[in-house]
UniProtKB/TrEMBL annotation:
<dbReference type="InterPro" id="IPR032710">
    <property type="entry name" value="NTF2-like_dom_sf"/>
</dbReference>
<dbReference type="InterPro" id="IPR018790">
    <property type="entry name" value="DUF2358"/>
</dbReference>
<dbReference type="Pfam" id="PF10184">
    <property type="entry name" value="DUF2358"/>
</dbReference>
<protein>
    <submittedName>
        <fullName>Nuclear transport factor 2 family protein</fullName>
    </submittedName>
</protein>
Amino acid sequence: MANSLASTFIAPPSLRHHPIFRLNHRQNVRDFRFCAKKSSEAEPENALLKIAWYGSEFLGIAASFLRSPSKTADSGADVELSVDGFGKIDRATVVDSIKEDFHRSYFVTGNLTLDAYEDNCEFADPAGSFRGLSRFKRNCTNFGYLLERSNMKLMKWEDFEDKGIGHWRFSCVMSFPWRPILSATGYTEYFFDEKSGKVCRHVEHWNVPKMTLLKQILRPSNKKSSSKT
């Protein structure tokens, strides 16, 4: 707060040539140039990441037509969660369903408890965001078609007033000719709607730089090490 106020302070004419003011002015200019440079460098990365994100979505759709459907039962689709007298689902019930979805590796199977989410739930990750539970389920299912094998585990769960946070670890071998290995840790924020108790925002955070994930996808794996994954 103090730094924000200092940056908007306009010195009176009598102090504008004071050494301290000149120093702060030069520092502010350097800080502004640094932020501008950092922002301009990040723009190409963000654009490239978005291209890769949308490309993977369309590639997953294409793969869904070429590969046979998974034999894993979609056990979460038809589950109806109980509500109270006000039509609200208990928080603990929703959280338990999310933890069960992790056991079903819902990130790559699309097998999640649909009744735990709002139909227009917002889904966001480092590349972008969209609304729609059906689209999220479709994307997760199709992404699974691009994997040779995967491993996903919920490491820790935290409860807060308006949300829960699930910390996870994920690794997979993608079924591209060069068989890249994708490995990362991260966490997902699950925001709960006050009226329904369902998840209304699902926000993913990866504990690795965005470009590192893209480089992992582009890097050929070592056949010997990948066979042991």
